[in-house]
Specification:
Oligomer: single chain
Largest sheet: 9 strands, mixed
CATH superfamily: Ribokinase
Distance between the termini: 29 Å
Number of domains: 1
Radius of gyration: 18 Å
Helix content: 25-40%
CATH topology: UDP-N-acetylmuramoyl-L-alanine:D-glutamate ligase
Length: 296
């Protein structure tokens, strides 16, 4: 059997995206566009992968109340859901307050906190070309080793491994050294600038990328409207500019879309440079939408 599937391990969320129509006024009303959307960094990446034609499985954890709704949303996006369903726990929920290219997020992790490594079946890893792990699955609780266990099993199964750190705040709480130990030796790491600075103590993109090559064979550093930089061992860094967009609406999920754009192309032909260029185009599509997933 050809191994061409991408297995995504990560968070599934109910997003409430708030885009104010002007400066927020305290203690009174502010007009805003407010949209409920399915979300979660890992789930968003899986949905974008499905929209790009990749063969993808999504492993996450949701509450029983809306499990069927999330499964249907994944199937509609071309994703095979493999969801752990918890009775008596809510699916994670996040309120995202958009301010230009910045966001403030109020988060209840919900069922994501009890995601088990056993949710990733051996058959999934046997068919996987790549295991992609959202950092939220690694740092989800202080004493948990779900992400680390699945990464080790994927290595044993011969799958390539990619990771997005997910949240500089959560990684800082979890412990930088501990996080780097878990992801040591992976194939692709997708930090943004804030995460890269935290993981390396460096500020310049070139210094961040070169330092992280000690952890991962490929590092793709995302920099918002400055585009991205690709780092590979023994090769000079490659800067890829962002794609201009007609109207910037919401940055939610842009990094998740970028990751999907890279992985979809990389799995096809192994060309990291072409994959990075594809990734910035997919990210540009994401910022012109409200919410973190593609329209389907």
């Amino acid at each position: 059997m050809s191994r061409d599937r991408i297995v995504v391990l990560g968070d599934v969320m109910n997003d409430i995206v708030v885009v104010p129509r002007g400066e927020i006024r305290r203690d009174t009303d502010t007009y805003a566009t407010i949209r409920p959307r399915p979300g979660g960094s890992g789930a968003n990446t899986a949905a974008w992968l499905g929209s790009l034609g990749a063969a993808v499985d999504m492993v996450g954890c949701v509450g029983e109340e809306d499990a069927a709704q999330h499964c249907e949303a994944f199937r509609h996006a071309g994703v095979v859901p493999a969801l752990q369903v918890e009775t008596g726990m809510p699916t994670g929920t996040i309120v995202i307050l958009v301010d230009g290219q910045s966001r403030t997020m109020l988060t209840e992790r919900g069922a994501n906190l009890v995601l088990s490594a056993d949710a990733v079946g051996d058959a999934l890893l046997a068919d996987a070309r790549v295991l992609h792990v959202s950092g939220y699955a690694i740092v989800k609780s202080g004493g948990d080793d779900t992400g680390a266990r699945v990464i080790e099993r994927a290595r044993d199964a011969g799958a390539a491994i990619s990771v997005t750190p997910g949240s500089a705040g959560y990684v800082a709480d979890f412990g930088v050294d501990r996080f780097l130990e878990i992801v040591q030796g992976i194939d692709v790491l997708f930090p943004n600038l804030a995460e890269g600075e935290l993981l390396t103590g460096r500020r310049e993109p070139e210094a961040i990328g070169e330092a992280l090559l000690e952890t991962s064979s490929i590092v793709v550093l995302t920099m918002g409207d400055r585009g991205a930089m690709l780092f590979r061992r023994g090769m000079p860094p490659l800067a890829v500019p962002a794609v201009p967009v007609q109207k910037f609406i919401d940055p939610t999920g842009a990094g998740d879309a970028f990751t999907a754009g890279f992985l979809a192309a990389w799995v096809r032909d192994g060309d990291a440079e072409a994959a990075t260029r594809n990734a910035v185009y997919v990210a540009a599509r994401a910022v012109m939408l409200i919410g973190g997933r593609p329209p389907v």
